[in-house]
Design goal:
The complex is a heterodimer of chains A (about 250) and B (about 280).
Chain A: E1 2-13, E2 16-27, E3 31-35, H1 42-49, E4 59-67, E5 70-71, H2 77-83, E6 84-87, H3 98-108, H4 114-127, H5 131-134, H6 147-159, E7 165-169, H7 177-190, E8 195-199, H8 203-209, E9 212-217, E10 220-226, H9 227-232, H10 237-243
Parallel strand pairs in A: 3-8, 3-9, 6-7, 7-8
Antiparallel strand pairs in A: 1-2, 1-4, 4-5, 9-10
Chain B: H1 4-37, H2 43-47, E1 50-51, E2 56-57, H3 60-91, H4 96-110, H5 113-127, H6 134-158, H7 162-170, H8 175-204, H9 207-210, H10 232-242, H11 248-279
Antiparallel strand pairs in B: 1-2
The chains are: A alpha/beta (about 250), B mainly alpha (about 280).
The complex binds adenosine-5'-triphosphate and magnesium ion.
Chain lengths: ~250, ~280
């Protein structure tokens, strides 16, 4: 099943042509990893999917992005963002307790019942594999957690909104190898129930957990295929160069 | 002066001296007013009406008047100021119109207080026919402290990091929900600072209330917002310059009460602010 259908997407920020004629589809329950050197448009692509780009005043776009066959530009953007969650590059806990961070999304939807909120928080934390580490101290500030824990908190916070798709923008860039391994494990398990799009600057990470991989360069989609194929027999030499670390 | 250690010590000394110079006048003012005013303070002085042409008795009506005016001014200026601060920092695009508003606010802050008094006289007292009344005085004071509240609130709102807002939006929050649940709670302490400054200013100014509300001598309490009242700063001016042979301690006593009211209000706001600040961490 196709989750996202992107056709001829062009994006400009003022005079910068950030994405050039991107056409691709994102399948349900896959991990699509996006790799590419700096400024290749990976973040821009990701933030298109939950309509965060348009907050920039110099943003301009052409083309169609469909989510579940609906044009996202015609959808209510708050509704879209409930269905398409995002985890940012650096851990971004809100200045609230662990509990209130997770309950933030459900509360926005009007859930006030404490028992119900508690249940949602517990479920979300368990799915993000953080519950055992924090269950006795849900009331402390989320800033007291380690970086890796904060990042899993951000996943739990997204899960509590019950999205269908989760976007990750270099979620491990600030983490140590052990936290990174935990994050990857978490993402692999999430795949069963969610569609994941993972932008990563770590080629090995893409190889480890991606089902399919897309390679972006200078705003263009150079190629996209099964991860195995991209990493063994890429069809474009630039992909090969990038994977072997020849540039970027 | 090649040795950086010595340079640093010298610099440190002068910086310390400059800081000390700020503390000295503040301390002196407080000490002098307390020393000269404290003998006048007693229960009767605080609760009695002025008598014998204000040479005897107390200052109760002026205390009440000042409290009414300050509360009136803040309850007018806070909602309007906060709403325009929210508009300016969260909604307004950077264009000619919004820049014009910002410029107007800066200029409003620079207008001398006596001009506010004349403005209040023309608009509220005469044009709207509120007369010299608590209403006119509160509105005039309110307009005077608007720029203080707007500026402080805007700074407070803008000091909440942008990425918090992005996180909130990305979780499906609307713009208003983000402001309501995330930005405002984290900006409260800064907004309170604005209120503190505004309160102090409103309580202490004489010129804006001169033509709009303040009574020279009115030994009774107001019955409605259309009544005149006495007010501490104006009363202080009157007994210091307009009425001969007022005992010195009465004047300083009045000043002391005014100072205490302002300090007390500040204290309350500072305590609230401190409570909020303890929770804030980023
Ligand atoms: N708000 C903006 N205004 C102007 N240009 C922008 C803006 N956002 C992105 N760009 C430009 O768009 C291009 C793509 O940026 P993007 O952040 O998507 O790259 P990226 O692949 O995520 O890079 P990185 O690996 O460094 O995160 C860059 O040239 C960038 O300068
Ligand atoms: Mg990026």
């Amino acid at each position: 099943m196709v989750k996202f259908d992107i056709k001829n997407l062009n994006i400009w920020f003022g005079g910068v042509h950030a994405l050039k004629n991107i056409t691709l589809q994102i399948q349900a329950n896959e991990i699509l990893t996006i790799i590419g050197p700096a400024n290749s448009g990976k973040t821009t692509f990701l933030r298109m999917l939950n309509r965060l780009n348009e907050l920039q005043s110099n943003f301009r776009m052409q083309g169609v992005v469909e989510f579940n066959k609906q044009d996202i530009m015609k959808m209510d953007k708050e509704k879209l963002r409930c269905q398409v969650g995002m985890v940012f590059a650096l851990p971004t806990p809100l200045p609230l307790s662990i509990f209130d961070n997770i309950a933030y999304g459900p509360r926005l939807k009007g859930i006030r019942n404490m028992a119900k909120l508690k249940e949602k928080v517990e479920v979300a934390l368990k799915r993000a594999y953080l519950w055992d580490e924090v269950k006795d101290r849900l009331g402390i500030s989320a800033f007291n957690l380690s970086g890796g824990q904060q990042q899993r908190l951000c996943i739990a916070r997204v899960l509590a909104v019950e999205p269908e798709v989760i976007l990750f923008d270099e979620p491990c860039s600030g983490l140590d190898p052990i936290s990174t391994a935990k994050m990857e494990e978490t993402m692999l398990k999430l795949k069963e129930n969610y569609t994941l799009v993972l932008v990563t600057n770590n080629v090995k990470q893409a190889a480890r957990i991606g089902d399919r991989t897309a390679f972006f360069l200078n705003g263009e989609l150079i190629e996209m295929d099964k991860t195995e194929k991209i990493f063994t027999t890429p069809s474009d030499t630039r992909t090969d160069d990038y994977i072997r670390g020849k540039f970027g | 002066m090649k040795n950086p250690k010595i340079t640093e010590k010298v610099a440190f000394f002068f910086l310390f001296l400059a800081t000390l110079l700020i503390v000295v006048p503040v301390g002196l003012i407080v000490i002098i007013i307390i020393r000269k005013g404290l003998p006048a303070i007693n229960w009767k002085f605080l609760t009695d009406i002025p008598r014998e042409g204000m040479r005897q008795g107390g200052i109760f009506p002026a205390i009440v008047g000042t409290l009414y005016l300050v509360l009136g001014a803040i309850s007018f200026a806070l909602p309007i100021g906060l709403m325009s601060a929210i508009y300016l920092s969260e909604y307004a695009k950077d264009n000619f119109f919004s820049r014009l508003i910002k410029l107007a606010i800066v200029n409003l802050a620079g207008v001398p207080s006596v001009v506010y008094g004349l403005f209040g006289l023309a608009l509220f007292v005469v044009f709207f026919k509120f007369g010299a009344s608590i209403l006119s005085g509160s509105l005039t004071l309110g307009i005077m402290i608007l720029p203080i509240i707007i500026t402080a609130s805007r700074e407070a709102l803008e000091s909440v990091p942008y990425h918090f807002r992005e996180v909130s939006w990305s979780l499906g929050a609307s713009k208003w929900q983000t402001i309501r649940y995330l930005v405002l709670p984290n900006a409260i302490s800064g907004i309170l600072t604005g209120i503190i400054l505004g309160l102090g200013r409103a309580a202490g100014e004489t010129a804006p209330i001169l033509f709009t509300v303040a009574a020279f001598y009115l030994p009774q309490l107001p019955k409605s917002i259309f009544d005149q009242v006495m007010a501490l700063p104006y009363h202080l001016y009157v007994i210091s310059t307009q009425v001969p042979n007022v005992e010195e301690k009465l004047r300083y006593g009045t000043a002391l009460v005014l100072l205490m009211i302002v300090l007390f209000m500040n204290l309350v706001a500072i305590i609230i602010r401190y409570k909020f600040r303890k929770k804030k961490k980023w």
